[in-house]
Amino acid sequence: MNYEGVIEQSTMGLKELMDSREEIIGYIYPHVPLELFMAHGLTPSLIRALPGTASGFEESLQTFACSYIRNLYSQRANGHFLTLAGLVFPGNTCDALQNLGDIWRIRFPDDRVFRLTYPVTRYSQDESTTKFLTEELKHLSETISKTLNRPFLSESYNHAVELVQDFRNSAQFLYSARVVNPKIISYAEVVGLVRTFLTSTTTSSVSSVKEAAETVRNKANEVGLSDSIESVRQAIKSGDYSGVKLPEGLETPRIVIAGGMVEPQAMATLISDMPDVHESVIVLDLLSFGFKTVFTESPSTSDDPYLAMAQSVLTAPGDPTHEGLSYRMDAMKGILSNLSIQGLIVCEQSFCDPDQFEAPSIEKAASELGIKTVRVPLDPELSDRGRVETRIQTFLETLE
Predict the structure, then answer these.
(1) What's the rounded Cα separation, in Å, for the pair 95 and 241?
(2) Domain extents for the chain?
(3) DSSP per residue, 276-338
(4) Architecture in CATH of 3-8+19-153
(5) Is the pLDDT of residue 153 over 90?
(6) What span, in angstroms and rounded, lies between the C-alpha atoms of 9 and 194?
(7) For 25-53, how does the pLDDT look when each residue is reduced to its tens digit (9 = 90+)?
(8) Helix or strand or coil: residue 77?
(9) Higher confidence at residue 255 or residue 15?
(10) Which of 196, 242, 245 is nearest to 5 (CA)?
């Protein structure tokens, strides 16, 4: 299925929910506590840039607004947004996102806009980071309760924790299975399932991921790969790769895709459409809408819910907001050096300063391991698709 087809498929369930009068709360930044929204009786939906949305200069946006921000704003200005109960913007992640939330309140005053402010670091000796985020989550919860008249219900919270954990367990297995054997399930199918879940976080979308994982698990059992897959999953979660044993005779090249808020499905489509290239070359992505969401730990139900959700959000791997540069580079090196990776595609959202600043460090870290890299500038419309495809294809040829 092409990129646009997956987008349409993932939004069908959301439209059905809205037709049945379910209340949807949108969020822009992927590292949010889905469980909090569901505890308030809301269905969370990740709002993402869409291809085909005309975006360009907009006097309300500052000049540093990236193509992603402009696309989101244009969707709303052009009337392409579904009617949402509310929309959650992040604070303290990047200037462009914070500016977008401020402008949104002014330009669209009828929209219910909320903000979740994140800490500037993941670690602190006195646990001040976790305390800060805990209080921010409490404030967000109280604001949702007052604004939407939907209280936080413990029973709904516990159900949400279980549901999201089921998704992550299954999705982690699928990601890890592809590391061991990229042909056991297509990359496009895996990221399509993740997209559907994030677009409408429901029992139905989780069931689809669990069914796919069960099918792959049966295949893995038949060929004796289950233990290897589980060892990869545990290694990625812990950062300790000493117990990983990949099968012999792995097909090459094996590449990883790194970057921030880039759509995994777009990358799957780009590579799948190239002649003489099979998407099994993609072993793993480290993208915000894929890997970083899937490998975030679920909150515990035994602790204070807001503390547990804060601790969960802060485990999102490789996120610039929560981790220092050296930590992120070391984590990436662990993946590249232990999972038999030959190449790294570094995706850069057009005009995104964080992506531009981080790319040289990613290239340097990969170079220290003898792994080749290529930088690919992207925008949500894939407006320079021909040049991007040529660059990726040439890169893959050099690996072969």
Answers:
(1) 36
(2) 3-8+19-153
(3) T--GGGEEEEE-TTTHHHHTSPPPPSSS-HHHHHHHHHTT-TT-TTTS-HHHHHHHHHHHHHH
(4) 3-Layer(aba) Sandwich (3.40)
(5) yes
(6) 12
(7) 999 998 899 999 999 999 999 998 887 77
(8) helix
(9) 255
(10) 196
